[in-house]
Fold these 3 entries.
Entry 1:
Amino acid sequence: MRESNALSVPGRARAAVLLSALVMAVVVLFVAAGCAAIPTRGPVGKSDPVLPHSNNINVSFQQFAPVAGASPESIIRGFIESGTGISDDYQVARQYLTAGLAQSWAPDKRTLVYKNAFSVAPGPDKGTYKVTFDVASTVDANGVLTPADTGTTETLDMSLAQVDGEWRIAKAPDGVVLSPSTFQALFSPVSLYFYDPSFTRGVPDVRWLAGRAPRTATAIVRAMLAGPAPYLKGAVVSAFPNGIALERDSVPVNNGIAKVGLTAQPLLATSVRQRQQMRAQLLLTLQKALSTVTDLQFLADEREVDMGGSSDVVAPMILDSAVPSTQVALSKNELVTFDGSKVSAISGLASIANLAPSAPAVSYSGNEFAFLAGGGGQVYKVSPGQVPAVAAVGTALTPPSFAPNGWLWTAAGDGSGTVMAINANPGAKETQPVVLTVPWLAGRHVTTLRVSRDGTRALVISDADGVTRVSITGIFTSGDMPKELTQPATLVDPGNPTVGVWVDDSSVAVMAPAVSAPVTIQILDLALDPVPLPAIAGAQWLSAGAGVRNVHAQTSEGIFNNVGNRWEPSVKSLRQAAFAG
């Protein structure tokens, strides 16, 4: 059995084009004790149908209680099939368990989404059984979804015992196992928002949460208090102090106000400013996920806490950081700007034609530029009035990428795992690259590294042994100084792209360039399956501004704009245009 090492990054897609595809996941009751089977003989006990909680999918799930004389395999299969009982705490599923296991089994510890079907076979000892299936993805107790590597399988060990002459599951792992369709009906993607280290921007952390609407607010708060997903730890911060928890496992919403009762001691130990930041962080998350929430109150020992006055209110989180509408591009081997209709020379910029430039980049300020030279072995930086200067040297460097704070990033594509960041801000005292050795990139050929528009994450496309991964990694810094790239989250397999760009705060566009063949650009959301844009022949480069409707494909014929279900030509004289970032 091969373990999955990918992380899901998981938010609800905001663009209509993304809503058309939900991530394939699994919805069969998995973890807890033995799985019950669909009855094959005897009287049938039928529970009330369970409806999906929030996905507007008109589906009901029938749950069948165990029948007299059911075989061990039938009990296991029945248990798994009754893993849809979210609304009543899986009361039917618990009937397939011995009394002790029915009390201790924790169905929300993990959800396994399986492909195709599962098999039940006797184990090596009497009364033991093995449930085996191909894994599509897993969801942990906090809603972090991890797509499984192709070929990943899992086997669950279960033991059965007779209770009053009937087989019941006496030992099984916590969690549920679900089919993809059931998972889609019972779980919804929700973006939790954490702060960037400056407590200015909001960074989405997509989780898959189950349950009916009245329980969604509780699930959101519980997941937020547990902190960011593994790949974001160290890259983002939470206003909520470590160790704080819900006072009760309930967040009621009355007349639009969410009442959030937190453990008194850690809550009262916070400052008014920290409580205001906690409020801004949680209120944004709740309002994005639930149309019923208009405000929230923090309670300690059932009493509302001091939130200060109007002068203490903090600014809302900034989402989807603005991307300037002007692109930088190459025209006759010189850097130019393109605003969508007009191509302009850059005043005061020295000629770079003799450097054979490629893959240009522009800072968010619009005053600093970078490009590849030397056959991809050098990154140059340049600004008006300054002589072009080498910023980084390496092998098969990725196109340079500016972070919002003015740092310039690139990665070596030689399998060394080397990533370099350069302070390209005007007047920077130290301009030598900060060199990071990233263990998880060792042995991988990196073709893309793009910093997100909030500066806390990077899109990385890499391949090894013919297998491509599209990953999102967190950027751990000390002040502005980069220190580490976190163990990444891997997005749903989109094939074998080599080029990618950020589209908004939670989605990217990727493609595999071709000289003349049709190319499909795919939008990958942190929560959803790939969504293809219309194919375009000979696409060789990609850029994106704000949103899916601002994706541009570039061929030997020029730049094309994504307009509905077609590509329209924009300008012919440019190549390798790029927005800030």
Entry 2:
Amino acid sequence: MKNQPDPKLIQVRKIIDTMLEASEHLRTLIKNKDLKNSIFIFGSIVQGFESIEIFLKTSKLDRGLKTRKNIEQNILYFAKELERGNITKLLEIMQFSLIPNIRKLKGNFDDDNKDRQFIIGVYLDHVNPIEVLPEARTLALIKEAKKRNAEIFFFSSNDVNLKEKQIYGMTKIDGKWQKKDFPLPDVINNVGVVTKGRQSSIERNLRKLIPFTTFAIGDKFYLVKKLVESGKYAHLLAPFKVVTDIDIVLKFLEHNDQAVFKPLRGARGENIYYLEKNGRKHTLYNHTKKKQLDIEALEKWVYDVILKRKNTYMIQKYINARTKSNEPFDIRAHVQKDGEGKWQITKIYPRIGNKKSILSNISRGGRTEDIESFFESQFDNKGSLYLKKLLQLSMDLTWHIDKLHGLALDELGLDLAIDNNGRFWLHEANIGPQTTYHEEERAVNTIGYALYLAKNKIFHTNEFEILNLPKDQFSIKTNDLDIAKLEHDITVGMLVGEEEINELTIACAYVANYENVNFFYFTPKDIDFNEGLIRGHFYIDHKWVPKIVKYPDVIYDRLRLRGVKGFDFIYQEFEGIPITNEFYGNSINKLKVYDRLKNTGVFDDIIIPYKKIERLKDIKNFIDNYNKIIIKPEVGSFANGWIYVKFLDTKRLSFFAQQPFMDCSTSQVDCQSEKIL
């Protein structure tokens, strides 16, 4: 088994490396006098430094204390000069103070990676990647990993055992796929990404322990929105509207005779429609198929197709980019970060479609050519100038999009176009683009970048990795509570509802102190899911005092809401931490317990007669047999929701209800004879 590095140091390194990368980019922005975007990057550096301070305090690590104080002063000084717009001073601070100090801090947490074989895990949440990836890609990844002396395996969430820190993954042995136990890898190349709040509990926990290569950038509208808000490169975007009703389509067509309908989450040119207006007549194209529509038919089609699911389509001005032979084309620039974490153009090529279609996607029957030959043949004496401009734009645009996503991206597929007037346009940017014809070139950068993250312990994140929590949820960034000083080796956290802070909670605190165990209680609102910290309440001098504390070693579950809608995410968050209560729901089902005991045949003499209520007649029959019965919920405690019924005479029954009288015709209650009393 590999020598695992100290997880505490990993958490610090991941932030320092991200700060260093952002600082280098910030210096470039300052040189270019781009103060607007400098503020954005500077903010990410400040956030990173705040996270380091929080983590080191909670982990009782004091490495680089003097350097950290220097960085804090550098940040304050830089902020003042940034407000004044003093370019000279800003460059001086960056070059001679801030960047050197961040590098010095990095040295305090570096470890020796020499002669170490790194392990790369290729991951997809719901299914093993080898079942969905092209074989050429998996083989290229395996080949490149072997070249770099790295071990590689493929796995899904179903293969992960967090408690044992083991993964039962697939790997190729002697040319055949076989299952094998692996320790947690040094880095994870995740094949697919999901939007915020939808990651599985396994993935969320893996992301806390291991660097991931790939992060989401949102749908087509989200990227467009980010570019417009940033101001830069917004001129590359064709006018568009998200379709929320028929009026948006009709008004758009008043100003545009040609339009394209694109799904916000589409791929490979699927479900794209081109509409051409000619008076009250419209021609609708879906790839090479077309049909004529009058205004009534058009409106019906919009309702049936585009508005079938609201907010799933955008309408965009059509960009007329065609070859001399009237074939639609665009340029795909596949860019990746390499083994040094720097952006490179892996491959750039034209995609040329059928002249009867508006689509240039290769997956839709298009073709490709050599990029230089294409530009020479299509743009004559301007070909070399356009190509040079295209290469530079691809890199600059990539840097900008990466910056807008917290410098967390690893690869992009940029779809660019040049119209008949020589104007450049951006159709869209995709993560994880198709690379049918250059899998080996892609694998070189995929493996190289993965190893770069592993060696430097860089944990990137972006806004899609941050949960959108309620306003009253605890967040360490908005609190100035003290860090808990834990005196003992073991920490127990009692998870409770807000109404269950009582004598039992206090008694547990006393017993824990007697047993030399740290103890605190916390509610669901006391968890900072993004930072992995808790506002724990400690019993000090006969009162509960809130302090910031890491997740406990074991959880005493008094909340008892596992499996209940709206609370599952809490238990998923603590995957891998022992929890006392394994039951689903806040109580067990009594009927199921009675049925199981009865089926054993051992406890017939002591089981109190019972019957599930399926109709009102069941209650009458039970009263006839036993005179006194109790009606109570299948799930819940005996003290809540029960009704005592006593037979008085042929016309009278006596009722005593702990709660207001319930509907006894439902199947959620059961009758039991009064012997229980």
Entry 3:
Amino acid sequence: MKLVSTLALGAAMAFGMTTHTQAQDGIPGPDEDPHIWLEEARSDAALDWVRAENNRTMAHMAQDPRYDELQAEALAILDAEDRIPYVSIRKDGLYNFWQDKQNPKGLLRKTTLESYQGDDIEWETILDVDALAAAEGKEWVYKGSTCLPPDQRLCMIALSDGGEDATILREFDMATKQFVEGGFVIEEKSQGGVQWLDENTLLVGRDFGGDTITESEYPFTTRLWKRGTPLAAAEEIFRGEPGDVWAGAGLVRDNKGVVHARTANRGISFHESLNYVWHNGEWLELDMPKKASIGGIIDGHLTFSTDVDWAVGDQVFPADALIAVDLEEWKRDPNGAKKTLVWAPGDRQTKQGGGATANSAYMSILDNVVGKVLKIDFEDGQWVTSEVALPDNATLGVQTASSETDQIMFTSTDFLSPSTLWYSDGSGDPQVLKTSPEYFDATGMEVEQFEATSKDGTKVPYFLVKPEGMEMDGTTPALLYGYGGFQISQLPSYRSLTGKMWLEKGGAFILANLRGGGEFGPGWHQTAMRENKQRTWDDFIAVGEDAVKRGITNPGQLGIQGGSQGGLLVGTAFTQRPDLFDAAIVAIPLFDMLRFHLIGRGASWVGEYGDPRIPEQREWIEGYSPYQKIVDGVEYPAPFLWASTADDRTHPAHARKGAAKLKELGQDYWYYEDMTGGHSGGVDNTQRAKLQALQIVYLMQRLMDDNESE
């Protein structure tokens, strides 16, 4: 039995930015927005502005006597050689990508299971990214590989110059440790990806020039590329529509590498797709909900996952269910094959991910934000699930699994216990394989879970991590973190940097489980999107109010932090309730929501937020867009905005414009832009440590230093 994920090449990300400078459909243009020139990522004027802001911020933060110590603490943790080297199990060994002080850009390396089970692992270097970058004069960032199953010897290596999502692709031989001479190469950077059909054929979804990318700047065509032929001459096998978010073709294959079907999908919004299968010489649209997706193969069955109730005849499969059809029956009659229920969520349960060995499939779930892992088997004509023996009250996941054997590894983590890696060969319960060292002193610290009541009465859970000796008297500096979007869950985990740099110094940490996330399944997300997105912001504010009410902290010592969608969250919070917070870290954010569809790849997120070009939907967004909500006469909590020049996802324009508007109004603020990192900021550990130190110094100055700030 095997669970095999299919590749939706159309879901590969796109590159680039289109800057629109004309006012249209009520969207602000240069006459209404004096900072629109900051949307040009690398113009001389914009970069001069960035350098001036960086210099100002560094001159202030780096002179703080705590800065050097904090940066050193962060770097020591990030470079620690005793941290767990997580691996993926392949036929020829265990593979790991590793970055440290000696290898800042990283090593792709492998070892044996026998060596990995010991304390002194012997590694064999496969690809030295630092050496490659030095030889080619590039700031290469390793972005992963796509390999030909089942041997996974031939791989397409993805490399990014400076950390942006756009990559080049080169064929690499894992056995010879060399790029293949005369092999498949895509040197023009772009979004998109590839999938191996066989040793001499790739499915390619890229920007081929002309009319081949969507408004969201994702590919919407797929080509069949034969070895030894030019990519430009490759046959187009699938084409979506320019109005799609993305579109592309992929494969359904089993653990032996056998391809059973060609599939395709068109992302008609970020959360909705039309799915197809190549059947009888044409693309047949599958009769399935737009918020459902094809999964993989389990014991001769093809699986599907759905985010909405799925009615099939007199059956109704509930949202978040795992559904299966007999693979051979489905290949004969894709829309008529009988569907059966594999698993359905109970109250406050949701599935999170999974993996599979040669003979069993595994699925991680959340049960009231507590992790479990289920083993799934098809026995005697029915689906059987059993719980894997792993720690209670922890966040659990499948780390890696072998497609050749029953070997599998799991992870467990919580706020105060170092992360643990578990191993099983299928013959018994998982056993501890490796444990992360303790990177901060958790003596006396404890975790509690509370509920806040949001504006509409909804109960919103949150976790509090308390430093040793904390009294609930409202005098503790507290950092509130949230995300609340795209059905992404925020879960307890061992946050070594937060623990060392914040909790050890006497700060409290709060993690909010907001609507818009996925902590309680698709419904938790769908109830707070588009016209209801304000509910996410209300939930976050409610958690902040509840923390004050319970005596965890007070508004003068409450800071908030979030990145990307979470940066938008923080922006809405400090503009809607500036009185409730005294620090706000707005990281790699969305911020100008009236122009978000025109900046970076923002058009792809219309499904989450709405479309500002449509008057009714623009009205929803105008109600909270932080950039427009920064107004004269209001005192804001001196936010720290940071971004990355190379971020081709949310784009640095959002953070830049927020800072520029605050400056225009004479408000206190700080701004920093990493000029090489991508969407996550920092391409190596030194840069990441610097970003961490800047943010913690800012928090300490705002929340710990007698609540005084510049």
